Amino acid sequence: MNDIAEGWTNLNMTMRDPVPEVVRYQGDDTGDTDQDREGGLATVTAKPELKRPPMFKVILLNDDYTPMEFVVHILERFFGMNREKATQIMLTVHTEGAATVGIFPRDIAETKSEQVNLYAQENNHPLMSMVEMTD
Ligand code: TYC
Fold this sequence. Notes:
- It contains 4 helices and 5 strands, in the order H-E-E-E-H-H-E-H-E.
- The chain has helices spanning 3-13, 68-79, 83-96, 106-122; strands spanning 19-24, 41-46, 55-61, 98-105, 128-133.
- L-tyrosinamide binds at residues 60-64, 66-68, 71, 90, 93-94, 127.
């Protein structure tokens, strides 16, 4: 599994709640054990070991030359938007100057931004995206 796929696995496995783990009962009442001692076992609430990764915005920037249809195509191709959503976001970038088009873990945000910039360059359009940390 590559790094990006692994990143997603961890993200999916992120635990929202403490997970009980079974431990051998030591005959000692100190510590955070629940009072379930059937069969000589007590449970203890384990600290979640995975933290949510910090998230990063991919921001699309306006320019005066990239055709609107190409921007819509970019949003469909790299950000999985349907035509209606892509058109709406493209128009926001066009009128506001920039818009967040997706929020991802750092590696995925960087990769998407680079893919967009490279694809625009290969098609001789000045379209640019950038990555910014979320607040
Ligand atoms: N402003 C461009 C035009 O008028 C359209 C455009 C939209 C360009 C969004 C870039 O990220 C962009 N053709």
